[in-house]
């Protein structure tokens, strides 16, 4: 089974490392960013290439690129009998041109190049054009992770939406908190135990049951005091989230 990975960003970097750590060889990693490809090569030893004219023949092509580049990249794949799988959370497999064996291999995780991950613990969600073919792709994915599941397009889109709230928006709030600390010469590390406990306790409690803070108490003096210290977009976000919490927990 020959596999080519297309892409040179964070997802491609970690997929390459996952293949490497699980002793699954890639015949080629193809991308446009030579410097990023060199970084992947240094971490895995897999062959790299920036020239589409030199794309290797393979049984499986995994397209790990930006959503709006999936179709363009897939169109360039010469082996029309191959499997072509993209890794996006909110894109249909139909973005891959007809004729290929089409599907999705979606890893539900946040990827940063300099953060080590346990790939066996990452959930991978599989969808194929022909549902009876899903088991084959799931078997391939099980080479990378012990948590491989089938998810149709709607389920995958909802998972991605949930992930945006749980991860991307949350990280943005961490950034706003860090900005407040920096503006007041307070080490952001002071908040680490609070952040870790907030995440840890939802392993045993529903997030709704774990909510604390002035909004759930409807503590208007504290809320007004904090609003008065904020300006611009952070103030708008504080106001919106406070109203959302009060609305959710009002009796």
TrEMBL record:
It comes from the Bacteria. Residues 122-245 form the DUF2520 domain. This is Pyrroline-5-carboxylate reductase. Transmembrane segments: none annotated. It comes from Bergeyella zoohelcum. It holds the Pfam family DUF2520. InterPro entries: 6-PGluconate_DH-like_C_sf, DUF2520, NAD(P)-bd_dom_sf, P5C_Rdtase_cat_N, TM1727-like_C_sf. Residues 2-79 form the Pyrroline-5-carboxylate reductase catalytic N-terminal domain. Signal peptide: none annotated. PANTHER family: CONSERVED HYPOTHETICAL ALANINE AND LEUCINE RICH PROTEIN (PTHR40459). SUPFAM superfamilies: 6-phosphogluconate dehydrogenase C-terminal domain-like, NAD(P)-binding Rossmann-fold domains.
């Amino acid at each position: 089974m020959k596999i080519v990975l297309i892409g040179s960003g964070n997802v491609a970097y970690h997929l390459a490392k996952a293949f490497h750590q699980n002793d699954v060889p890639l015949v080629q990693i193809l991308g446009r960013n030579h410097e990023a490809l060199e970084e992947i090569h240094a971490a895995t030893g897999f062959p790299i290439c920036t020239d589409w004219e030199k794309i290797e023949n393979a049984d499986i092509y995994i397209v790990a690129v930006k959503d709006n580049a999936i179709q363009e990249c897939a169109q360039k794949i010469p082996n029309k009998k191959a499997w072509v799988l993209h890794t996006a959370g909110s894109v249909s497999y139909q973005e891959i041109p007809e004729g290929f064996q089409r599907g999705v291999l979606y890893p539900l995780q946040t990827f940063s190049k300099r953060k080590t991950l346990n790939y066996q613990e990452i959930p991978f969600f599989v969808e194929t054009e022909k549902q009876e073919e899903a088991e084959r792709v799931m078997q391939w994915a099980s080479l990378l992770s012990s948590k491989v599941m089938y998810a149709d397009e709607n389920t995958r889109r909802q998972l991605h939406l949930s992930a945006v709230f749980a991860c991307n928006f949350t990280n943005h709030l961490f950034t706003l908190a860090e900005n407040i600390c920096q503006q007041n010469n307070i080490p952001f590390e002071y908040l680490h135990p609070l952040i870790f406990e907030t995440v840890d306790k939802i392993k045993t409690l529903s997030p709704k049951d774990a909510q604390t803070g002035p909004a759930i108490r409807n503590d208007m003096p504290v809320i007004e005091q904090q609003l008065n210290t904020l300006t611009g977009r952070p103030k708008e976000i504080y106001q919106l989230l406070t109203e959302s919490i009060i609305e959710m927990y009002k009796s």
